[in-house]
Automatic annotation (TrEMBL):
Coiled coil: none annotated. Residues 279-301 have a biased composition (Low complexity). InterPro entries: PolX-like_BBD. The lineage of its organism: Eukaryota, Viridiplantae, Streptophyta, Embryophyta, Tracheophyta. PANTHER family: GAG_PRE-INTEGRS DOMAIN-CONTAINING PROTEIN (PTHR34222), RETROVIRUS-RELATED POL POLYPROTEIN FROM TRANSPOSON TNT 1-94 (PTHR34222:SF79). Residues 348-422 form the Retrovirus-related Pol polyprotein from transposon TNT 1-94-like beta-barrel domain. Residues 271-302 are annotated as: Disordered. It comes from the Eukaryota. This is Retrovirus-related Pol polyprotein from transposon TNT 1-94-like beta-barrel domain-containing protein.
Length: 442
């Protein structure tokens, strides 16, 4: 009797560790649709407590007369508490009366583990092909894809007679998954995406992810916009700020730096829209010369282009006392205003650094769509401001500007050089005293 008591005391002593264990070992609660992630998390938690044998069935219940039965019952009950506390309330009644934890685990695996496999496979694949980065970071986007891939692999069973065919299949499968990851990235990663796809060999998915994430970190360090959208070189702070005079250390003249001195760099000289060679470049007033390298169609007539050129030239050739933002000067943006002092919302500033047309006046929009609230504009001073909406508006009551952003806190209207050249299929060339608009077609 003493020996039996001694054995029982030792077993209970080892099992007394369960008195201090938590009620839950995972924060994920089982529903009808998340069995894969739930079972993986629960298995990790139970294994960390040294009770994996209860899941695998390697520790069956001893007979009640066995001196170790009390210890086993104590440990099994603790594991049952973990599983009951980790399932939703509508699932709990289905397992509450099961005699052992292994019975609970087996029932749930049969009910939800591979239930409606074909339907679930279809749902997973559909969600994978429709998934894009959106507002997610690269790490979060990759994690979302990887989670879906793991769930897909769980539901898809394959039996291969040839091992080499199996290896080739998975090599192709992971190549396709690499393409899905690259294809779902935002447009700001086009450069690194092109580098990877144009290489002699496509690296593995882990290396591809590492390279893309490094590019994301580089862009953050360089203060580039990672919000897959607008940026502006205008500073938020307003002021009377006179345009800082640029001084050339070579010719000792004002108005340009040594990097743009025509004495040292004659190839940078532009005379009334003509290149250094003296050959006349395509202009808005010459419709007899065509550009053979462009098959695009001009969006405006020559007369309209000439009128628009005059308007933009007027904006960008204001008197010296006209104010510009300090941020635009630092970024070498081509910014000008028609107002002395602080520009008003009635004026437009030609900005070569802005990615979109922007305005703080919602009344200017002819078509308008509210923003989700997640899109922000990166300013030259490092700050960012939210975008309220976007749409199309009219310039001079004639020219439609598309995809313009409504940014309530921006102090000026910005006319994006990159946007207008894309929309009108033209070039804008600025010189010291005028602006030239070149049609790429006529």
């Amino acid at each position: 009797a003493m020996g039996t008591q001694k054995d029982a005391v030792l077993d209970v002593g080892s099992a007394s560790k369960t008195e201090n264990v938590p009620i839950q070992v995972t924060s994920i609660r089982l529903t009808k649709d998340n069995y894969l992630s739930w079972s993986a998390a629960l298995e990790i938690g139970i294994t960390s407590r040294g009770c994996l044998s209860y899941i695998t069935g390697d520790k069956p219940a001893p007979i009640k007369s066995d001196p170790h039965w009390a210890t086993w019952a104590l440990e099994d009950s603790q594991v049952k508490v973990w599983i009951i506390s980790s399932v939703s309330s509508d699932i709990q009644p289905l397992i509450l009366r099961k005699p052992t934890y292994f019975d609970m685990w087996t029932v749930l695996a049969k009910m939800y583990g591979r239930k409606k496999r074909h339907l679930r496979t279809y749902q997973i694949k559909r969600s994978i092909y429709s998934l894009t980065q959106g507002d997610l970071s690269v790490a979060a986007f990759y994690a979302a894809l990887k989670t879906k891939w793991e769930e897909l692999d769980y539901h898809v069973t394959d039996e291969w007679k040839c091992g080499s065919d199996h290896s080739l299949y998975w090599e192709k499968e992971w190549m396709d998954r690499t393409f899905l990851f690259l294809g779902g990235l935002r447009d700001e990663f086009e450069s690194i995406r092109s580098q990877i796809l144009n290489g002699d060999e496509i690296p593995g998915i882990e290396e591809v992810y590492a390279r893309v994430e490094s590019e994301e970190q580089r862009r953050q360090v360089m203060h580039l916009d990672t919000g897959h959208g607008p940026s502006a070189f205008v500073s938020r702070a307003s002021g009377t700020g006179q345009r800082p005079a640029r001084h050339c250390t070579h010719c000792n003249k004002l108005g340009h730096s040594v990097d743009f001195c025509w004495d040292l760099h004659p190839e940078k000289r532009l005379v009334r829209g003509r290149p250094p060679s003296g050959k006349r470049s395509p202009s808005v007033s010459d419709s007899s010369q065509s550009n053979s390298s462009s098959g695009a169609k001009s969006k405006l007539s020559p007369a309209q282009l000439k009128e628009l050129q005059a308007y933009i030239s007027r904006l960008s050739t204001t008197p010296e006392e006209s104010s510009t933002s300090e941020g635009a000067q630092l970024a070498q943006a081509l910014v000008a205003s028609t107002d002395q002092g602080n520009p008003s919302l009635g004026d437009w500033i030609v900005d070569s650094g802005a990615t979109h047309h922007m305005t703080g006046d919602s009344k200017l929009f002819q078509e308008y769509q509210l923003s989700s609230g997640k899109q922000r504009v990166s300013m030259a001073d490092g700050s960012s401001i939210s975008v309220a909406g976007k749409g199309s508006l009219s310039l001079l009551n004639k020219y439609r500007l598309h995809n313009a952003l409504h940014v309530p806190n921006i102090p000026v209207n910005l006319l994006s050089v990159s946007s207008i050249t894309k929309e009108l299929n033209c070039n804008l060339i600025f010189s010291a005293d005028h602006c030239s608009l070149q049609d790429l077609v006529t």
